[in-house]
Amino acid sequence: GRLRGKQTEPPKSGWTDIPPYYAEELTRFYNQWLTEQYPSRKALAKAWSVGMRDAGEQQLVNGSFASGEQGWELFQRPPAAAKVEFVNEGRDGKRCAKVTVATVTDTRWHIMLTQSNLKLRKGIPYRVAFYAKASSPRLLSVEVCHDGKWRGYGSGRFNLTAEWQQYEFTFTPHVDDDSVRLSFHLGEAVGVLWIDDVILHEAPIYGLHDDEDPWRGTVRRLQPEQFGSHTLARFRDEARFYFDLEKRYYLNMYRFLRYELGVRALIEGTNHNYGLPSLWAQSLMDLMDCHAYWQHPRFPRRPWSRTDWFINNTPMLDEPRESTIARLCRSAV
Fold this sequence. Notes:
Layout: H1 20-37, H2 41-48, E1 73-76, E2 81-87, E3 96-103, E4 111-120, E5 126-134, E6 138-146, E7 152-160, E8 165-171, E9 177-185, E10 191-202, H3 232-260, H4 276-282, H5 324-329
Antiparallel strand pairs: 1-4, 2-3, 3-10, 4-9, 5-8, 5-10, 6-7, 6-9
Helix pairs in contact: 3-4
């Protein structure tokens, strides 16, 4: 349910990622699985074409920065400090936004490059895309939200390098909103960032890309930020693949333990909350594990620090709805 490791870089976003070696192997399994489900590339392309559409119109003002600061605003919350310039250093030699971050706090949104007064419609998939690079490797978070009392609609978090690259994410708002803001959160670290050719539009919906063919092993697994920009049929096939893979693993391990080793104890998989494909596959075991922490440790400054952490330590009786017992009751399969 949570296999998604990037194929071209070491895992950077925590224990749910996997190293490139295994990500490439997983993609190879996926392409092989597709060849077993469809008789030809043509048949696969047809199945995945339902719901495809072209991109909508650009909704940003001056997304290319050709008109300098028009439409854009640099937000700073002291002591965080930065400056923005509009210089001819874009990927095509034309204008782009150049942001020099001088001072940061422990909150990345204390420096933001924003554009407001945007409009979104409920249930419509949207796409944000842009080019960016940085003076040194760093993270960049981008968010689309209500401009006022915070209500998030979509976001992405990206690893910038010294080379121009395009980054994107898609999202689908759950309400109509005529007061929306696009924000680049620049307060992650000091240094220089360049941003160019920013787009916000109704997302194109893709099926099978022209350069993809499972018989050549070139169909890519979708990353979470790409889910909304591809057809439901493609998304469902990938989910089915993960289920089939996990199902085969659990059934083979069950057979080995029960019938070859002669294990007589009840056999379970892992915890139940690792996504629907995993839940479905594990339902074939004798039982399913369900355990929960009552108020997991929190790490305010450094993730998984052995010394810098705390626990709220609230009595369970004071929060009956979120108590471990109530959560276990809600987890029946």
